[in-house]
Each structure stands twice: as C-alpha cells, then as structure tokens.
Specification:
Layout lengths: L2 E6 L2 E6 L6 H9 L9 H20 L5 H15 L18 H18 L12 H5 L5 H37 L4 E6 L2 E7 H21 L1 H4 L1 E2 L14 H15 L4 E2 L3 H6 L2 H28 L9 E2 L17 H25 L9 H25 L5 E2 L1 H10 L8 H4 L1 H14 L3 H9 L3 H7 L2 H5 L15
Parallel strand pairs: 5-6
Antiparallel strand pairs: 1-2, 3-4, 7-8
Helix pairs in contact: 2-3, 2-6, 2-9, 3-4, 4-6, 6-7, 6-13, 7-11, 11-12, 11-13, 12-13, 16-17
C-alpha cells in the first residue's frame, strides 16, 4: 500500500495515500476502537453546512483566497449532501468534546478540495485542514452548532412522521365510531364504549407529542458559532462573528440566531435535556399504544381479539399458524431504548465542567439515534399497523353483552339496586344483558338496546334526569 507522511505535535505518521482523512483522524482511529458505531450521518451533513458558512464568510471578508475557497466550497457542498460520509470514520464515542469529529471533517474537506485543485491528498500547503478549513473556528463552537442543526432537521422529519400516525388513528376513529366494545380499567371490565373512542384518545396524545416536537425547536435555534473556544470569540475577527450565523441561517433555511451569551451557549446544554424529555414523552406514548394494541389483539381464539392486526410474518419456528404483533413489540422496544437514551443525555449534560462539556458526542449519538428510530417507528406504525387494522365487531359486542359490568348503563335509568340485580342474574343464570335487563326492570327490549347505541355512549353524560325509580348510590 502507498503511504504519505503527515505530521502533528506528536510526530510523524504514515497515512494511506488515497484516503481523504489525515493524521488527526488516524490517531482517533487508534484511540477510540470502542463501539464500532459511526458518527451519525445528520451530524456529518450539518458539519458540511457549518464549514460552508464559515468558508463563505471568510472569503467574503478576504481571509480565504479564491483559489482555496472555490474548491473548499464545493467540498463542503458535497459533505452536506452526504457524498463524503465514507471518509468520516472516527468512532461515535470519543473523547475531546468532539474534536476528533471536527478534525476528521476538516481533513476530509481539505483533501477533497485538494483533489478538486488537481493536487494530491496531504499537500496541505495549498489547502490546510486547520489554517483554511477551520479558520476562525473551534470544535467548541462548530460541534454544538452542527449538532443543533442536525437535531432541528431530524425534529422536522419526526414531526411529519408523528403527524402520519396521528392521521392514521383519526381515520380509524371515524371507521370504528359505531363499533361497540367493553372498556377496561385496571384490566377489568368497566363500562361500554366504542372502539373509535380508543383510537381518538391515541390521536389526541399523538397530537400533543407532535406539538412538543414542534416546540422543541424554539430553544435549539440559538447557537454559539463564532464563540470559538469558550465564548469570547478569541482568534476570530468581529465582522466574522457577527456574520457567520446569519450566513448559516441562510444556508440551512433554519431560524438560527447567535446566542446573546456565548459563554452560556458553549458550556450549558440543558436544551438537549429538555428536547430529550419531549422525545421521552413520545416514547412513552408509543409504549402505551403498543401495549394496548397487544392486549386488544391478543388471542385471537383464546383472548380479547377485539381488533385484528395486519399479519406480517410467521410468528413461530415450532407453532404453525402463529402470528405475532411484531410492530407493536418493535414500538415498545424503541420506546424503552429512547428512555435509556434520555438518561444518557441527562448524565452527559450534567457532567459538563466549567467552560466546556466534554461529553457532547454521547449527546449527539443518543439524540440522533432516538430521533431516527422514532421517525422510522412512526412511519412503520402507519404503513404496517394502522393502515391495515380491522375491527372484530361481533366479538367486541359479544364481550359487552356477556359482562355484568355493562349494567352500569342502567344506573341512571333504574337505579343502582335494580342494576345490581341485573348483574346478579347475569352471573347466576348465565343470561345476556338484554334478557336480564328486560326480566328485572320490565323495560322494553328496544329501550334497553337504545342504552347501548354508539351515539348514546359517545355523548358526554345525559341532558335530562333519566331515573325512573329506585335511584341508588
């Protein structure tokens, strides 16, 4: 293999001749052989945008010669488009507050620019990773800024995906509006309701999750680019500091703003904890819905089986015909993983010391992983779960009519004592609700059936007193 020799403060090192990374990346590859997880792609692409904004401003202010700027500009464009991902090779778990990621990006951009200049990678006298690509920057302002851009864009994708899940539930709410079923509290029979109400409740909680995701963007838009090492802007010209965030805002199309207190924005990252809290809330929603779906679909012959989930794959290597609720099970596991990620992010942010937080790579990995998993989960939930779900209407009604708990609908009409007598008769004689109610109360069969109409069950309370006699507690 052909090599080139590169030098840093620790000495010389052989670097494979054709790779676009350099000595700083090579040392990181040796030091952080830990997880095998790559840098999240959204963070790489965001780094391309940050570096492009910095290069544009530095060129405009006369700090970069055109011969360097033009190929560097194209290299940055390629990075933001994902064309240089293969060269971002350092481990996601790294020391140095993200320095290895920043240097990896700087080296890749410099060497790609050299290729565009018809030069050889490593000829840094023509385009240097630090002197040109990292000009007027620090890892400490570029890394958190790139992370916020990546999170903001992933939040947009998640919001759209949650909206799809919400719409899926709203569609089923309408479709199942007339399906009578038994409600259950503490897993025990409660009162009759409609299946549509179940999906309506899920649609509402998903709506709140979507709103939380949207609101999380407000604080993330404030970045510390231009603050360099600790927030003083040391090593950067004032004109650059005042222009670079505006340039980045234009490039990304995001409503970015430079932090008023760059010291605060450099060392304190509570906004990531807040955002993860919102992601955790959505994870809890997915776990709740997935658990409910598994209960409602259980059986089908030996369980509740009020709904039928789409059959997606064989469920057993030994039991022929078995089909498992694989999508709800996946959603539950994603929810649990996001909750674990929330703990990791909280620890990382809390562990920052003095003017810098050394643990942002842990924040980046867990946040971007969580966002990607939640987005994919919602897309799959709508595509493979809500869009193909069916109601077992007859089975739902059968559970209602055989449960003594249904007698609650009689309480406003005949009172607690008469309703209790109906329940007793159902248990002792094995009668259905309608037969027992007619026998105990003397009501007409049609009047009893009206009490179970979806329209009546979906209304909020009743408008006028319905009690006839024997009203109980």
């Amino acid at each position: 293999m052909d090599y080139r020799i590169e030098t840093d403060i620790l000495g010389e090192k052989k670097i494979p001749a054709k790779v676009l990374w350099g000595i700083h990346t090579a040392r990181a590859l040796e030091n952080f052989t830990v997880s095998g997880f790559p840098i999240p792609a959204p963070l790489i692409h965001a780094f391309g945008e940050v570096k492009l904004a910095c290069a544009n401003v530095n060129f405009r202010l006369g700090f970069l010669p055109e011969a360097v700027f033009l190929p560097l500009q194209q290299a940055c464009e390629e990075m933001r488009q994902g064309k240089l991902d293969e060269w971002m090779v350092v481990d996601a778990f790294q020391g140095g507050a993200g320095t290895s990621t920043n240097l990896n990006a700087c080296e890749v951009l410099a060497n790609r620019a050299l290729q565009l200049m018809d030069k050889t990678p490593g000829e840094y006298q023509f385009c240097d990773p630090l002197a040109h690509v990292n000009l007027h920057q620090s890892t400490n302002d570029t890394y958190p800024t790139a992370l916020k851009i990546a999170v903001l864009k992933e939040l947009q994708a998640l919001e759209a995906a949650v909206n799809r899940s919400q719409e899926g539930c709203q569609s089923l709410e309408k479709e199942f509006a007339g399906v009578l079923k038994m409600a259950r509290t503490e897993l025990m029979d409660a009162v009759p309701m409609t299946l549509g109400r179940t999906f309506g409740a899920w649609a509402d909680v998903l709506s709140r999750d979507r709103w939380r995701v949207f609101k999380a963007s407000e604080r993330l838009r404030v970045v510390n680019l231009g603050g360099t090492a600790i927030g003083t802007g040391l090593g950067a010209p004032k004109k650059y500091i005042f222009q670079v965030v505006e340039e980045l805002k234009t490039l990304t199309g995001l409503p970015l703003a430079r932090a008023e207190n760059l010291f605060d924005a450099t060392q304190n990252h509570d906004v990531f904890v807040e955002t993860m809290g919102m992601l955790k809330a959505h994870a809890a929603t997915l776990m709740k819905i997935s658990g409910d779906l598994r209960l409602l679909a259980m059986g089908p012959e030996g369980g509740i089986a009020e709904i039928e989930l789409p059959a997606l794959q064989a469920g057993s290597s030994i039991m022929p015909g078995k089909v498992n609720p694989v999508i709800p099970e996946m959603l539950a596991q994603v929810g649990a993983q996001v909750m674990a990620a929330d703990q990791a992010v909280s620890w990382a942010v809390a562990s920052g010391q003095l003017e810098l937080n050394a643990f942002l790579p842990l924040v980046a990995f867990n946040m971007l992983m969580s966002l990607d998993m939640l987005t994919r989960s919602n897309v799959l939930a709508q595509k493979k779960l809500f869009s193909g779900m069916k109601a077992n209407q007859e089975h739902c009604a059968a559970w209602v009519l055989k449960s003594p708990a249904i007698t609650t609908v009689l309480v406003p009409v005949v009172g607690y004592q008469h309703a209790s007598e109906v329940a007793r008769l159902m248990k002792e004689k094995g009668l259905g609700f309608i037969e027992a109610a007619v026998q105990v109360t003397g009501m007409d069969r049609k009047d009893v059936e009206v009490l179970l109409s979806p329209a009546r069950l979906n209304q909020l309370g009743f408008d006028t007193p319905e009690t006839r006699e024997g009203k109980g507690g």
